[in-house]
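Troubleshooting log. The previous structure file for this entry was overwritten by mistake, so regenerating from the original sequence record. Sequence copied from the archived sheet and checked twice against the printout by T.R.
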Amino acid sequence: MARHITRESDFYLLLLWVVGLFLGGIYLIRSDDTEVDDTPVVPEGPYREVTWAAVGLGILQGILMTAAFVYSGLKLGFTLGGSTVAAIMGFTVLKGVIGKGTIVENNINQTIASGINIAGSGVIFTLPVLFMMGMKDNFNPLFMCLAAVAGSFLGIAVIIPLRKQMIDFDRLRFPSGTAVCAILKSPGAGLQKAVLLGAGFLISVIVVVCVHSKYLPHTIPIGKWFGFPAYTQTGISVSTMNLGAGLLSGLGGLPFALGGVLAFWFCAPLAVRMDWVSPLAGQDLTSAVYLQALRPVGIGMLIGGALMGVAMAFPMMKEAIRSLSRSQAADDGRVSDEMPAKFIYIGIAGAAVVFFLAAYLGTEGISVGRAIVISIFGTVYLAVAGIIVAECTGATDISPLSGLALICVTVIMFLTQNNVVAAVLIGMAVCVATAQCADMMQDLKTGYLVGSLPVRQQTVQLAVAWIGPLAAIATTYFLWHTPSGQPGFGPGTPLIAPQAQALQAMVEGLVSGNVPYLKYLCGSLLGASLTVLPVGGLG
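Regenerated output below.
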């Protein structure tokens, strides 16, 4: 048990805090610029940029998208950034409803929305493990929230000094950031895109209602029609969410599809023919193929791909670290367009302290010495992982977030002598932080292309960095407590949480000592080999 008694009332106070901010954002949007004043106003600059309307709309969209993407992530196994949706809706509201709105103002809106939303990707990979392992009551939710919020702040603070190196000097592409720039630069098409967005929303609602009403099947069993074995998983899911995720991911989602085809259409039949799995039949055989063969190799591929990504990114990482000295304010007395370095150092030190408190006070059996070691390792690992994820995202739009998280949790398990709660707690903080690193740099790339001041984007994202983790954790709790009383996610439920299942398998293997080392090793070699190929993210 945690050192302090878990009080659900404290957690609900946090939820009320988020709801209050949500309502405040709506009020600010509606009250912005509504008073009429005959006094001539001299604008501070040529364009509206950081306004209450942009901030309020960004917070509102960010919270809504966090809830939606946490659900989809628990169902599909991966999440997507919300910058595109936020940019489209930004022009609709800022220009169509309020009557004002500029490209850089909408850029602030999408920066805030995506900065809030991205925290969900770190939460869904880690926190559900404790629920599925029956440890929901073994930790204090307040300290879990503190760790996630600290990771969110630390991720932004770590990556800010590297903006010049990655964007100005290396000229990394950051495909998603460049795509959002194209949307921002075509405000006239905002209404048309909003109509298409609304049409997609209505189509999805209709399909979901038809599926739940049994007018449409959940799955079209194409493989069964042709007599394929069940373990080949050749059915097609009737899900517009799957289709939408594929459309949003574009080429970046191709490796996911290739991985599924490779696993179920080639590796599964081979595993059965070679008697590599237990001699079972029917659904038992299908489960055995996945649990005994495919999942361990897949976990190994994630780890191998992440390690090879570290090796390949090392030269750029070295140069990026050297650029830290160039992030200081200008010597000629002018105000720098970057956030002052002293705030970054304060943020890193503060987050490291929170890591220590969360590890020591939030879990049982952690000594002061171990808590210090965990906080130091978590901070250093987070910085390195954040740089790697930002570099990979800038080059290919694909980040080895899952593999890096698996490595982190494994090391923390070793440092804490298999303390699952502490490992997942720090692992979640690292996941949230590395996701923030990639998102911050994507947003800064967009701002670079549309002419925003980096310091303004950095400031607003830091100001709202605490909202995303709280919204994601609250949504996770809500999805677990379903009306029927059945656990909300995990094996045998509609929200299977595939990423969390992979982490759970590794954690349980480490605790029991029954780790399929050979399968992990083979998968690691495969993942490392595929990562060096020209197709980024294939490993």
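The radius of gyration is 23 Å. Archived copy saved in two places this time.
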